[in-house]
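Figure 2 data, in text form.
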Amino acid sequence: MLAKRSILARLLAVAMAGCVLMTLTGPAVARAKKDPQPYVKYYVVAAQYQGQPESLTEIARRFLGSGERSAEIYHLNTGRVQPDGSRLTDPGRLKAGWQLVLPWDAAGAGVTYGQLPTGKSPTPGARPTGATGPGATASPSQSPSPSPRPTGGSPGPGGPGPKCTATTGSSSRSDWAQLRMAADSAWTLTRGNGVKVAVVDTGVDATVQQLSGRVAVGADVTVGNGRGDTDCLGSGTAMAGIIAGDSSVDGSPVGIAPDATILPVRVVRGSGAARPGDAANAIEVAVSAGASVVAVGSHVDLTDPAVATSVATALDHDVLLVAGAPTRAVPPPSPAGRSGGGALLLTGGVGAGDQLAEQYAAGAVEVVAPGVDVASLGVGGGRAVSNTGTEFAVAFVAGQAALIRAAQPDLTAAQVKERIRGTADAIGAAAPDDKYGSGMINPAASVSVAVDDRNQVASQQQGNNGVALAVILGIALLCGAGVVFGLRLRRNRFGG
């Protein structure tokens, strides 16, 4: 009998040790969650094409319309480990079975949209079950497919835009905005990978080194079938640099979401406001091309009826539109009653001392971001320039939205907006403040901090915490039962 009790006592000791270990590690296990692999367009290299070995130039010509775009494919894949364990280091050498990530606008037989397969590479040209067809751009987490592209506004491989030499901004530079944003604090969680951000402004200079491989062909709606990847004025390029500029280039301003893709949509070729029809067309082009975040420049008047209709279309397709807050008391388009999950976020610009970039209408600003003396990229070489304007604050917020949409792809645009507002640093006497709204955006907090019950992220985190708590309580009950059993065993042993 004593031997039996001795064995039971040893088993109890082991169980108690296990309880302690599970209590220490249980919450961490409950919190562990693998980041979802992003959805991309990719192509599996074949042994040969039309009797010749595959090459980046031929692949670019076949799927992008121009062999000159082979550099984009190279930059998207250089250094990435392939299924056979090797890496792309020489653009002239490809191996059958390699998986090449392609730019967003790639289309043709063999182009697949989905998550990159793990393990053994699929047969070249094969399409995994559930992947969308060639030319698809919408993520499975998004709402129903956008409306068809407006005639003449389709971003395609049309002729290049005119060469230009005009620039914008001052050559003096201050990095206060990037330092205050501290976006690199968020990069351990997300860099905006897989998120397409449309810049509706003056176009974007895709030849700038800091934007290499990050800018799609886009569209020029002012001419009907032109490209958006050139820029004569510079504000669109500056916005793109703030959103996704490559911070690894020495001396360059830091982009908020450096792995995001920029979709440039030109609405003006000179100063002044965009024509309402062009502005409306541009927003619809951005939506139909699969942008989940749209940064609207200062040339667009959201209160125009035609533009308001396009905004409503975007809101029906789970798109977050970021635009400048109005300077006059005219109500912008309202998302009330829309069922597509989209949202409109009105932004104000501020300087290092929190001075406003413009005199916005009272109560119109929802959040603020740097918009005075902001460093970004200039056209024609990418030299750093300093700019002031609400559109640059819009770019910071759009970059932040890209970080959130990459880190939490299940959130709707409306929930992304609430996360941006809920994690902003308050400025002024109240929050929301009549001048500053919810306050200065905080990119790092927006991807790591729970907000409130209005946001699905908070509910998910609370749910995860609830699971962890349930595990801990279960362990505690088990351990408590073990203690009671041990006391009884001890009493029986010594009490006879």
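Caption note: The chain has three domains: 1-31+455-496, 39-115, 176-449.
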